[in-house]
Every structure is written in structure tokens, then in C-alpha cells.
């Protein structure tokens, strides 16, 4: 095969990424953070996009997050599912996502980070969890799927 043929061979989205389909929809947040987040697939299914409009620690946060495997040109995709958040204040934040059974874990920066979210799906329309930060800080949140 030529390099062009290799490039044109399109893989399917991974099972790790496809598992996050459970997040697709619009969710209302309550607890220490309030607001709305919406998850949707980018065309092709290789990236899950989260639109964020929340209030946290007295701040109004609007952002967009792209969730998928790192896949530099000419290299294999990463094993872990990474994301980058871009907010209206000019910040960029990186995360690693993992969904095992009913437990969603999101690490700040790299997998295994001491800054992480752990939430459990109570059912298909509710996730309860908390962010944990080094030194004991954090906050709780409940996500409830909005009926459309």
C-alpha cells in the first residue's frame, strides 16, 4: 500500500470511546455546580463533543470539550481516551476519560492523577459523583438527563 492508501484506511471508533455514548444528550447539573452540559458525537464518531454552560464556585463557565483518542499523523491512536476543554476565559484543560461498568472516571491531566472525578450511573438518566482535588478539596455534582 502507498502512504495515501494507508491514510485512506479508516478505522472504527474504539470500544472505549463508544462506551461514552451513554453520555450523549443534554444533562442538568445540581449540587455544588449547576447548569447544563450537552454531549454529542462529531460526524464520523471519533470525537464526543461536550458543550458546557455551568456555574461553579461562583463563576459562570462556558466551554467546549473534545473527547477522543490522541492520534498524531502517521502514528497509532492512544490507548486512553483524552480530552481538551477550551473555555471562554482562554483556559485549556486536559483530561482522561474511562467508563467501566456504571462508573465514570475523569482524571485531570493524566490517568491516575490525584485530581479526578468519579461518578456512578444510577440509571441511564442520572449520574452522581464528585471531583476530588489534591489536599482534600473538591465538589459534588448530580447529572440528570433532560427529557427532550
Outline the structure in words.
- This protein is mainly β.
- It has a single domain (3-145), classed as Beta Barrel (Lipocalin), CATH 2.40.128.20.
- The chain contains 2 helices and 10 strands, in the order ααββββββββββ.
- A hairpin with a 2-residue loop joins strand 8 and strand 9.
| Major sheet: arrangement of strands | 1-2-3-4-5-6-7-8-9-10
Distance between the termini: 47 Å
Q: Do you know the CATH topology? A: Lipocalin
Nearest-angstrom radius of gyration?
16 Å
What is the class in the CATH system? Answer: Mainly Beta
* Helical residue percent band: under 10%
Order of helices and strands: HHEEEEEEEEEE
* The named CATH superfamily: Calycin beta-barrel core domain
**In terms of structural class, how would the helical and strand content be classed?**
mainly beta
Features:
single chain, 148 residues, mainly beta, ten-stranded antiparallel barrel, 2 helices, globular
How does the SSE layout of this entry go?
Blueprint: H1 3-8, H2 15-18, E1 25-31, E2 33-41, E3 48-56, E4 59-69, E5 81-87, E6 92-100, E7 103-108, E8 116-123, E9 126-132, E10 138-145
Antiparallel strand pairs: 1-2, 1-10, 2-3, 3-4, 4-5, 5-6, 6-7, 7-8, 8-9, 9-10
